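To illustrate the input format used throughout this study, we show a single complete record. The first block contains the structure-token representation of the backbone; no residue identities are included at this stage. The design step must infer an amino acid for every position from geometry alone.
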């Protein structure tokens, strides 16, 4: 119930105003968000890379309903990619993009604007020698996002997809996207979805994750195992037994299980940290609270002790 309430609040403008106006929220947000500026994002990336981890950077923002804001997001990514190139970090850091931040949800021509904008970001990434992964948002956007992915992959074949194991359709999507060169990040899924399209029970989602991961690991693509779940991390090691360690990777979120992140990297495997930065942290932060009730207690305790 708490998860449902938090995920509903993640989409509520009123709740957003309330939480964003609480200045004391910021220090807690910093556990999950690298900072608000490009400089902080590059600093955090540099520290993680020096520690043996790789990075994917997310310029925070979603559900943009203004074309100028979508264009500003593209500029932010272009600036970020330039900065990664200049700091010699592009070999270890890519970017993650939410299509709803670059125009997908605009009422007129949203899909075309998102494709054009995502293409600009892919060009900027290719210019410094790195790539882009398209985040996956709620199920109403899945077909559109996979359609845009397929268009982008014509010119930028290394563009990555995200698939969510909680969706009933995902096993088939894994089959469709398991071909040579296909980079697929498999996660459990972070949105509130109806039973008609998504498994509701945690154990059902976990079983689906294993079925999907098996398909990806048996395929010729590049699976990206995005989970902090120790059981799934262990299962991934079993399923990857016949693979070289440079043909798949693990991914975890900034601020979540950093010891496990270091341990995976120390085994000689690739561990990539998803690092969000920027001012529009509200939706991202609320989804992180919803994933783990203990985070809510942590948040409330921090407010009470300040
Ligand atoms: P689960 O939620 O079962 O957590 C397992 C354990 O991990 C917990 O017991 C706890 O120890 C730790 N943990 C997990 N979440 C935590 C948190 N927030 N705070 C503290 N500890 C936590 N989703 C989506 O819908 N679209 C997307 O594009 C992406 N992209 C993405 C990229 C990357 C790199 C990751 C790691 C995740 C995503 N996600 C996502 C989020 C994903 O769908 C999922 O909600 C979270 O990863 C949590 O699921 P776990 O697999 O970690 O398992």
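Output of the design step:
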């Amino acid at each position: 119930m708490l998860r449902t309430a938090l995920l509903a609040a993640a989409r509520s403008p009123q709740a957003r105003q309330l939480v964003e106006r609480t200045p004391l929220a910021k220090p807690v947000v910093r556990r999950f968000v690298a900072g608000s500026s490009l400089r902080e994002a590059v600093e955090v990336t540099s520290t993680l890379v020096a520690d043996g981890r790789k990075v994917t950077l997310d310029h925070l923002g979603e559900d943009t309903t203004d074309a100028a804001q979508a264009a500003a997001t593209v500029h932010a990514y272009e600036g970020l990619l330039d900065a990664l190139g200049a700091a010699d970090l592009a070999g270890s850091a890519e970017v993650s993009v939410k299509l709803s931040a670059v125009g997908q949800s605009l009422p007129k021509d949203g899909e075309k604007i998102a494709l054009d904008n995502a293409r600009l970001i892919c060009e900027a990434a290719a210019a410094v020698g790195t790539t882009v992964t398209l985040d996956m948002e709620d199920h109403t956007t899945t077909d559109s996002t996979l359609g845009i992915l397929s268009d982008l992959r014509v010119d930028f074949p290394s563009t990555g997809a995200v698939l969510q194991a909680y969706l009933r359709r995902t096993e088939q999507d894994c089959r469709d996207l398991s071909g040579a060169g296909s980079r697929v990040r498999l996660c459990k899924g972070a949105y509130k979805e109806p039973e008609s399209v998504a498994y509701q029970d945690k154990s059902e989602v976990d079983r689906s994750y294993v079925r999907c991961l098996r398909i990806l690991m048996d395929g010729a693509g590049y699976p990206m195992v995005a989970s902090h779940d120790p059981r799934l991390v262990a299962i991934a090691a079993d399923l990857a037994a016949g693979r070289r360690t440079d043909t798949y990777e693990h991914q975890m979120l900034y601020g979540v299980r950093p010891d496990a992140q270091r341990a995976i990297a120390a085994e000689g495997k690739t561990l990539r940290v998803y690092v969000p930065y920027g001012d529009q942290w509200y939706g991202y932060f609320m989804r992180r609270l919803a994933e783990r009730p203990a985070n809510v207690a942590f948040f409330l305790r921090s407010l009470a002790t300040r």
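Structural context for interpreting the output: Residues 18 and 27 are 16 Å apart (CA to CA). The chain has one domain: 33-280.
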